[in-house]
Amino acid sequence: MIGVSGSELHQELLFAFGGGDRDIAVAVLDGPVDRTHDCFIGAPLTPLHTVVTQRSDEDAPSTAQGTHLASLIFGQPCRSVEGIAPLCRGVIAPIFRDSRLMCAQADLAYAMNRALDYDAQIILIGAGSFEQPWYPGPSLASAIARCNARNTLIVASADRQGCSTLLRRCGTLNLLPVAALDGAGQPLGGHDGDLNDIGIAAPGSSVSGATLEGRVVRRSHPNVAAALVTGAAALLLGVQRNAGLAPNPAAVAEALRMTATPQTSPAGSALPPAWTGRKSLEAAAAYLTGRYESAYASSLFEAWYRARAGATRSDHAAFRPRA
């Protein structure tokens, strides 16, 4: 079993590959995000009008879950929360609101189409309650067909509150379900074992992220693991661009699966292979580009800072110099 906390994985991936590429767009489909939080100052975020926001007379109120997930990806360097891919473009397409995490299939389809209109190459879908029955309606099937045609990668939590099973039944070609592990390597919150063959696991416990009213909180949830993997996938799309290759989300999903470490539970039951840290990121980059270097995932800024300060990657943001 692999014992790594989500906070350790988060810190390990900070500053990798310079924090991403502005030409890479990642959509977060969850609740509205509190973009007034200090971690988003300077972040290239685009909020979209969806069915959720259209139902409100005023701007839909921000949600703690949506804000937390977005901060793990887009939180800016040297702020209260640092994201894994702060230089990538963020597209915020709400599907939940307030504390009511319920989403109809038609609402999900509309948000996905809006994200595609803004050229999202990766779509992260948060966990909540999704409309039953668990077979695709025409609007969602059409949105998935459009994702398939665009080679879009869809990342979703593989727990019982996620929509991974529904998306799989829609025929999603580039679907990456993510299960969560606690600090001892045990499944966190349960997961859908039927998705083991196409999914991976990642640490999802005790990760600091933004929440409402400018606060920072620690959350443990499969959503957290999915957000961390989404940030890593965004970095890998940038790696392809820097290597002179066309960004290929399907190839990134394959690299994430192929470089994950097989594991089993103490009871002997199968678990998704685990993707746990910086070495996994370097291996995935090597898988995509055909070359491997020991410091391949380090940015020039990180290399300079580590050489000058002798610091580790887990140092708090307050002690990092501004870029």
Labels describing this entry:
single chain, 323 residues, alpha/beta, Rossmann fold, seven-stranded parallel β-sheet, two-stranded parallel sheet, 10 helices, 13 strands, globular, disordered C terminus, serine-type endopeptidase activity, Peptidase_S8/S53_dom_sf, Peptidase_S8/S53_dom
Query: CATH homologous superfamily - what is it?
Result: Peptidase S8/S53 domain
SSE arrangement, N to C: HEEHHEEHEEHEHEEEEHHEEHH
Number of helices: 10
CATH topology category name: Rossmann fold
Kindly state the number of beta strands. Answer: 13
Cα shape: globular
> Averaged pLDDT, please?
85
N-C termini distance: 38 Å
What would you call the structural class? alpha/beta
State which percent range the strand residues make up. 15-25%
CATH architecture: 3-Layer(aba) Sandwich
Spans of at least 5 consecutive residues with low confidence: 311-323
State the name of the first-level CATH class. Answer: Alpha Beta
How much helicity do the residues have? 25-40%
Strand order of the largest sheet: 2-3-1-5-7-8-9
Organism: Rhodopseudomonas pentothenatexigens
GO molecular function, one term: serine-type endopeptidase activity
Protein name: Subtilase family protein
Domain Peptidase S8/S53: 22-263
